[in-house]
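Help! Submission page says 'invalid entity' but I think these are all valid:
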Amino acid sequence: MILNVEENNYEINIKNNNDIELRDYILENKNRKFAIISDENVYFIYRNKLNNLLREVDSYIFTFPQGENSKSFKIYEEILKFLSDNDFSRGDAIISFGGGVTGDISGYVASTYLRGIDLISVPTTLLSMIDSSVGGKNGINFNGLKNQIGSFYFPSYVHIDYDFLKTLDKRNINNGLAEIFKYSVLEDKNLYLYLKENKELDYEQIIKKSLEIKLKYVRGDEKDKGKRQYLNLGHTIAHGIEGLSNYSINHGEAVGIGTIYMARASYKMGLAKEPFYLDLIDSYKKYNLPISYEFCTKDILEIIKHDKKIKDNKINIILPTEIGSCTNKLVSFEELEKIINLGKEI
Amino acid sequence: MILNVEENNYEINIKNNNDIELRDYILENKNRKFAIISDENVYFIYRNKLNNLLREVDSYIFTFPQGENSKSFKIYEEILKFLSDNDFSRGDAIISFGGGVTGDISGYVASTYLRGIDLISVPTTLLSMIDSSVGGKNGINFNGLKNQIGSFYFPSYVHIDYDFLKTLDKRNINNGLAEIFKYSVLEDKNLYLYLKENKELDYEQIIKKSLEIKLKYVRGDEKDKGKRQYLNLGHTIAHGIEGLSNYSINHGEAVGIGTIYMARASYKMGLAKEPFYLDLIDSYKKYNLPISYEFCTKDILEIIKHDKKIKDNKINIILPTEIGSCTNKLVSFEELEKIINLGKEI
């Protein structure tokens, strides 16, 4: 199926086993050069598929070591040099082929090389399919902080082929499901109940549902100054947990923990009438998602101080009031400290 | 006087001796931090003025060595680190205080730090007042090529105080006038005749005229895909000349030479009915602007190959048909080589 993101002028194509339409898209502009950006592991798994997709096309492959550490200034500069050395011009294009790390760094490169060249996004993980491939945010980590440098830049085409998911291990799939749980807590109780059943999942449907929820919040607030911040449910703490764990807790897992903490705090603050966070914990356990992380609140606050959404020393916190509905609260760091402490188990 | 750039949501304030309104603008958001980015020479000249403008304001100064070589990856990264180390958040702001180099690098930093923070532009040279402070382009040089990395990003306020011009030497003033000559050839014969008189110049008027012409071309084509390319008159060759001369020929001078070459080629191609390029040469000489530069066409083409506007191996060339009017021509490199050779004297 096709989701049309008219306001940012691109299409998202969601389908299984869909090399043929990606190949068609590439051939539509056969005169261009393509730079495929991917991590070494993903490239190794899919090198034959890529060769086939790019046969008789003027293409160049850049790979980097897998992992969050590659979202660095060094790799950013290396890719720019690779494009420049190969005489890439504005009519040429980048294909981001991989997960969130690949998408983040490719997007930042695409938005700044020659002040912007075409970006085709081919997400290969569940998390990147339902989150980072949509919404235009990109970035690299800097000075020990996540996504400190980057831009807002939209792809010209997003190709989601959930056949890629069959090479992902369970933990990686669950990483994506944790973000989908977040969408469900934010907006869609039916989606939550469906996930909670933990049966064979219809990926086409849950990807579509997730992207529709995400697009609803991004639309009209691309630059993240208003309603888009609701998507940040669980994320304020999550970024801290990822950092403190030195990325041994992955993004989805951290967002899952963050969402539970916010739901628990919300109940204790009287914003949520029911202790539905207990139900959330049950659901997350079914997918082997961690439900807590030991940290010292002061350490987390030290990281949150660098959150991009801070304005006048205040930060907007999203608190769920029930499954499918949230509220927001602009709080000082002192208030945030209290909320985080309420969110912790006892 | 105020020029309101509604479509990009900012004002340009043009006035002489106008510290007071800059101070007012800064104080409007007194809670924020300000990072002043400037080169060492400009900072040395204006440190007292800056201290006065920023008294009782939480401000931080970053200076770098004057000159085109500072538009580098290294300085870009240093400024980002400076902001991060000083805990700059999204509500804080950058003040770009200087000429084109300062504006270009400050704009790129502002657009990518935390995915974008406020940029206040205070141009201190004639060229930056009438060109680079408006239109949203920024960038750094990379891999030996000019402005290869950058973005489109608009300031929140542009403060043009032409009192700054009194500390500029003649060559620097003429650098700006060469770009104003370009505007006049593009669009405004009266402006051309006024400049040609070479009397005491009314800066408020010529800055306003120049910006109005620039805005006319930028409006609706911010991303430089159509009519904005007309502003590139003289620039295709100019970027090459700047590079070949190792920046001993400055930007305005190179644009002046480029404009003469295009006017001469246009006459020889029969596009211009009159040899008005001879009149141009006379006018430029009055301002001690160079009217030619010795180069081998192959060397220039080698640099032009990296021009950001190339698409499908073709480039759009702007050719003046008379003073105040131009046409464009999409040409291959072979055609461009011929045009450049026609543009050379004899």
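Support: the input was valid. A stray whitespace character was the problem, and the output above is from the cleaned input. Residues 170-344 of chain B form a domain with the Dehydroquinate synthase-like, alpha domain fold (CATH 1.20.1090.10).
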